[in-house]
Fold DDE Tnp4 domain-containing protein.
Amino acid sequence: MQFSQFELAAIAIAIDDEVLEKRSETTKRRWGVHPTWRKREAEGEFALLYKELIDDESKFYGYFRMSKECFTFLLEKVKPDLTKKITRFQKPISPVERLAVCIRFLATGDSFKTISYSFRLGHSTVTEIVHSTCRSIVKRFKKDVIPEPTEEMWRKIAEDFEKLRGFPNCIGALDGKHFVIEAPANSGSIYFNYKHTFSIVLLALVDACYKFIAVDVGAYGRNSDGGILAQCNLGKRLENGTLHVPIGKNLPGSSTFAPYVIVGDEAFPLKIYLMRPYPGHQATGDANKTNFNHRLSLARRLVENAFGILTQRFRIFQRKMKLAPENVDYIILSTCVLHNFLCEQKVYTGLINHSAQNAQPHLLNPLSVQPGRPANDAFAVRETFKEYLASTAGRNFIGQQYQE
């Protein structure tokens, strides 16, 4: 049987209409809430498990990676942001369940889909809960647990480094950490790093007890640690002298004055306020330089240990994050805030509980710490620390740390 062109066109139109009609039937939303999610209050993970966890401290800690007291305190602080209005259409998700979803997501690294099925919540609902809760944690806690340091705080940090880590006049360990993400759309190579992955960088300054003093989140993966420091607020304020860092003090057991310094690795430039190790070819065969590099490395590895604690506690960082960069920034920042909060609550095993006495620095022929000075001053500061650590006073100071 043969058809005319007009008849063939009519048949094609009829087939297209039928296909579109079937497609609309299959994609049409048949309910406001999926029947599976309607069982959340009776069969969801939160409904079944939470009431049992609160009666067992060890199980609660294993599930949320924090104690019940910390979780309760956290809930009270963020509750105003997580409380939603009751409407005539549906009952809102409670603040405690919202917080549980977010903390469980951060602690396990499970996908939104996995959390969705276990808690019997919609995928988009879980996404909204995690992002809004992370923002609330940053909003409610950041100023309290990562405050801008005062002169007294800097001196206290330096005393902790002296007593606990054996490096005098040190006010922090500095390093960068790459968090792997899925390549954002149309981002080119700006997130592509030297490890051949796409990442966002956390630049952090850490004290002697693994707490974050200052953080910068959101730098592109392709940038070097030194370049990020030069462009971020922390680096700019260190350079122009507006971070309230004291001028310095005499090194322990000597009349040698030295400024307060930060310790970092070879990725950072040598500054008056930033010490980096001697290059390998210079240190080879020089016992004093080798000793300085060793002491600096022992102090600097604190920041790497802090990153290790962070990624172990929040396993979201142990996999590639398939999120928009701005959401990743808030997730990283919220975990840094939670890290400091939990440190203050003394939940990290092995942290040393200590008290330090405030010392008034005796200023004697201080080196200039004004910005823009020639690099020779930075070399002179490093030489001062090298000679001190190799001196009798320096060896006695280090020996006292091991005895304690």
